[in-house]
Design brief:
By secondary structure, this protein is mostly helical. It has 3 helices and no strands. The protein has helices at residues 3-20, 26-46, 54-73. It is globular, with a radius of gyration of 13 Å.
Length: 75
């Protein structure tokens, strides 16, 4: 993946995370936050840095599982 695309994914992740703070419906918050976390994990793997950015990947991957758990649990 090109560094430019990875940066766009990082920007999209930031937008989704911020957007999740604006919403009021908990399901929408969790879903939008999940999309942002997934984007951050992708960004962490494909960033321009030579190595993976583990401080971005690990917490966002954990948050993805938490969001999925609560989205499934509350159905």
């Amino acid at each position: 993946m090109s560094p430019e695309i990875a940066n766009y994914i990082g920007y999209a992740a930031s937008i989704f995370i911020v957007l999740s703070f604006v919403l009021k419906d908990i399901k929408k918050i969790r879903f939008i936050n999940l999309i942002g976390c997934i984007c951050f994990v992708i960004f962490g793997f494909f960033s321009v840095v030579d190595k993976f950015i583990w401080p971005i990947i690990i917490p966002n991957a954990i948050l993805c599982f938490i969001q999925i758990y609560y989205l499934i649990k509350n159905k």
